[in-house]
Design brief:
This protein is of the alpha/beta class and about 250 residues long. It is built from 10 helices and 9 strands. The strands form 3 sheets. The chain has a 4-stranded mixed beta sheet with strand order 1-2-3-4. Strands 7-8-9 form a 3-stranded mixed beta sheet, covered by helices on one side. α4 crosses α5. The protein is elongated. It starts with a strand and ends in a 10-residue tail after the last strand. About 10% of the residues have low confidence.
Length: about 250
């Protein structure tokens, strides 16, 4: 059975657009999952059939669905890769103890007919308060394209964070990026900032080399900055180690 987990009063067919920076307010330098997540999560029950899972993916144009238990808590995820094993794994025999753990899992999934049998478990989840940066790292580390978002108290699914939601931070308007960059500068008037396609070029003058390096790292951490090209000059090199006796 395909289910749509949503906030009360939301349409079951439409994913609510993420709020804009103006709507959400606050410090955009540290965006959280709640700022960019989809407010509707497509989920299926553990008893959902293979056909129902495919139908849900097709209907909502997603590459994976979250599997939830009777209390609407995520227990796993079924992806297109999981479903493709049905076609790719043509070996139909009992699992052998001589096979690797991964091979045994793949054979079981290929023989599966319900979401509980097909899913990859446990579900990898995030909460609304997880930083977008940490969520992106989790996606990369686990090689997944979407993450169920759960309520911290109940553990129930309340939305989905898609890969494209995370990438939206890299198309922030240049004026927003400049405002955030100026906020970390010790003396904004002493620096020149240029932004082209998310790449920040900054020039100016500081006293110490360590300050110039730290400044570039601070800017690199700002949400939406693709890279930093630092042309900041320094007066003194406090990182140079001079051998004794010279």
């Amino acid at each position: 059975m395909a289910l749509v987990a949503r906030h009360r009063g939301r349409s079951p067919l439409l994913e609510e657009a993420a709020p804009t920076d103006c709507e959400r307010g606050g410090d955009v330098m540290s965006l959280e999952v709640k700022d960019v997540m989809g407010r509707v999560a497509i989920a299926v029950s553990e008893e959902a059939s293979f056909a129902e899972i495919v139908e849900a993916m097709e209907r909502f144009a997603v590459g994976a669905v979250t599997v939830i238990d009777a209390d609407r808590r995520p227990v796993g995820v079924v992806s297109e890769d999981d479903l493709l094993l049905k076609e790719a794994d043509t070996v139909r025999h009992s699992v052998s103890s001589l096979e690797s753990h991964q091979q045994q899992q793949e054979h079981r999934k290929a023989a599966g007919v319900t979401a509980a049998q097909l899913m990859t478990a446990p579900a990898i989840t995030v909460t609304p308060g997880t930083s977008v940066r940490d969520a992106a790292r989790l996606m990369h580390a686990k090689r997944v394209k979407q993450l169920p978002v759960i309520d911290m108290k109940s553990g129930r699914i309340i939305g989905t964070l898609h890969q494209h939601d995370v990438l939206l931070v890299f198309i922030r308007p240049a004026e927003e990026l400049i405002a955030d960059i100026r906020a970390v500068l010790p003396n904004p008037a002493a620096f020149t900032i240029d932004i082209h396609q998310g790449v920040v070029t900054i020039s100016g003058m500081v006293e110490w080399k360590s300050q110039a390096l730290a400044l570039a790292e601070q800017i690199r951490l700002i949400e939406g900055v693709v890279d930093v090209r630092s042309e900041v000059a320094f007066d003194k090199d406090d990182l140079l180690i001079v051998p004794s006796g010279m």
